[in-house]
Design goal:
This protein is an alpha/beta fold and 308 residues long. Helices cover 13% and strands 28% of the residues. It contains 3 helices and 17 strands. A 9-stranded mixed beta sheet has the order 2-7-6-5-14-15-13-9-10, covered by helices on one side. Strand 9, helix 1 and strand 10 form a beta-alpha-beta unit. Helix 1 crosses helix 2. The chain is globular. The relative contact order is 0.21. The N terminus is likely disordered. The structure holds zinc ion. Zinc ion binds next to strand 6 and helix 2. The site of zinc ion has 7 residues, from strand 6 and helix 2.
């Protein structure tokens, strides 16, 4: 699949190359001691947004975190440590802070004609396997319906699910491995959300997330672009709906299917779509009762085809 020139290769950092100004800046750098992969003892933390941190990743690896807020806006940051143990933060979105609220959808290009997007620079070389942790599920949500909604989100990228009639040329796969008691590797100590360390289990779970945070996704990868893990936490206080279409009288509820589809888009390697691409799934903002986010648009599918 040809990728249009307006694409940006999100956070891919090639050895010896500095980030250019193509929507990517290294705004901060911290020195971290070099450690062998997997050695997270006494690992230092670095704050990436207010009350959001990550454990500094081992040399040669990267961790990326997206935070979704209750108003539907999203922030994304990558933290990578090079082979010499130097850690850098990369903010691929517009700047530190939230993007502007989306314009009315009617003024954005229609999703089937909007070919914009970006890539995070990682992909899976094995099926993305994941597990569900039911502990803390909102009482208002049915368990089976919740699992089905998350499965729907995980299926979106492999299916290249869209409402444009595009062929599915995406070779990515996911496998649901069932329920687990393992917690996502996302700590909430002291009201600070933190991506900790990658492990073999990719877990989606629930928690009473601090402040106005609606969800958080951590994805780990090597600096050479191989995804190694992803975990997600969703807020169990905010009102979600699990159906494909918004419930009658939908007010402030948010589609779990839509948000999960966006988050799995990231997990599979998509970045955010730029500008006024507010009808694309990977636009970094959503809103209540938004069923359309569940279906990718042209630019989203082009990105998936570029990676898989
Ligand atoms: Zn996002």
């Amino acid at each position: 699949m040809i990728v249009a020139s307006m694409w940006s290769l999100g956070s891919m950092m090639m050895p010896g190359c500095e980030a250019d100004d193509d929507g990517l800046e290294a705004l901060a750098a911290v020195e971290a001691p070099a450690r062998a992969p997997g050695d997270l003892r006494a690992a230092p933390m670095v704050e990436v947004f207010d009350d959001v941190s990550v454990v500094v990743p081992p040399a040669g690896t990267r961790v990326s975190v997206e935070v979704i807020y209750e108003d539907g806006q999203m922030e994304f940051v990558d933290v990578s440590t090079d082979d010499d143990g130097r850690t850098e933060l990369h903010y691929p979105d517009e700047a530190w802070g939230l993007v502007a609220p989306p314009p009315p959808a009617a003024v954005c290009p229609v999703e089937c004609a909007d070919d914009r997007g970006s890539l995070k620079g990682w992909h899976w070389i094995v099926p993305l396997t994941w597990k569900y942790r039911d502990l803390g599920r909102p009482a208002a949500l049915n368990k089976t319906a919740t699992i089905n909604a998350l499965f729907d989100g995980a299926s979106g990228p492999p299916l290249a699910r869209d409402a444009c009639g595009l062929a599915d040329n995406v070779s990515a796969t996911h496998t649901y491995l069932g329920e687990t008691l393992l917690a996502p590797h996302i700590s909430l100590v002291g009201g600070v959300i933190a991506c900790t360390s990658v492990d073999a289990d990719n877990v989606i779970g629930w928690a009473d997330l601090p402040g106005n945070v609606l969800g958080v996704t951590c994805t780990w990868s090597t600096n050479t672009g191989i995804a190694t893990g992803t975990d997600m936490l969703y807020d169990n206080v905010f009102p979600w709906y699990t159906s494909s279409t918004a419930p009658a009288g939908c007010g402030n509820q948010i589609s779990l299917r839509g948000v999960a589809t966006h988050e799995f888009g990231h997990a599979f390697g998509l970045g955010h779509s730029p500008g006024d691409s507010c009808n694309l799934t990977m636009y970094p903002s959503t809103g209540p009762c938004n069923d359309g986010q569940r279906n990718f648009g042209l630019g989203d599918v082009m990105g998936l085809e570029a990676v898989y």
